[in-house]
Amino acid sequence: MIDEEQRPVRLTLKQNILQTVKYFAFASSAGAIQLGSFTLMTELGWFSSLDSAYWPRHLISLVLSVLWNFTFNRRFTFKSIANVPVAMLKVFGYYCVFTPISLYFGSVLTAGQPDGNWVHYAVEIGTMLLNGITEFLFYRFVVYRKTINTNTSGQREEAKKRELEQNGAK
User: Fold this and answer.
1) CB of 127 closer than 8 Å to CB of 58
2) Which among 82, 87, 84 is positioned nearest to 147, based on CA atoms?
3) What is the 3-state secondary structure (H, E, C) of 34-69?
4) Range of the domain at 46
5) Tens digit of pLDDT for each residue in 32-57?
6) Are 78 and 19 in contact (CB under 8 A)?
7) How many CB atoms are located within 10 Å of the residue 137 CB?
8) Going by C-beta distance under 8 Å and a sequence separation of 6 or more, which residues neighbour residue 54?
């Protein structure tokens, strides 16, 4: 069990770079899921009868990508054993702010454009980039701040780092 008063792990420059690269690799795969599902719904004409057809496609594709991204980044990027419901609740809080903003601006920017128009795709990709950056910062400094490298793999990494530090000090 993790002590909530535990101090955050101090990552080396190499660990920070690797963590960032891993995050964006998984985020890219989540982006493929989001853009793929968005495209599928667009090309199949789903929700085209709604006045603002952008928002339901964006929302469904966003939820699919968030579930994927959360699962893989928790285990492999942040190597955390944080309480899953608590971590998910924090992420839910982030999306309670991000989603209405992205839905509003996405709908405004795509208003009057036909469903398959490039503007819909440009807005979706821009939103995904903004989401990826802000979500990484939120995960890193809010959700997993105190629990980075607490799973088995992370503990091995920290032990190896301590061993190198001790051998270097001798």
Assistant:
1) yes
2) 82
3) HHHHHHHHHHCCCCCCCCCCHHHHHHHHHHHHHHHH
4) 13-164
5) 999 999 889 888 877 766 555 788 88
6) yes
7) 11
8) 106, 107, 110, 120, 123
- Scan for tokens 């980039």, then name that residue: 129
The dihedrals phi and psi of 5, each to the nearest 5 degrees, come to -90, 0
pLDDT tens for each residue of 60-104: 999 999 999 999 999 999 999 999 999 999 999 999 999 999 999
Nearest CA among 32, 56, 59 for reference residue 46: 56
For residue 75, what are its two tokens? 């285990």
Residue type, 82: A
Q: And the tokens for 104?
A: 């509003």
In-domain check, residue 6: no
Query: Looking at the domain assignment, is residue 73 inside a domain?
Result: yes
Report field, pTM of the whole predicted structure over 0.85 = no
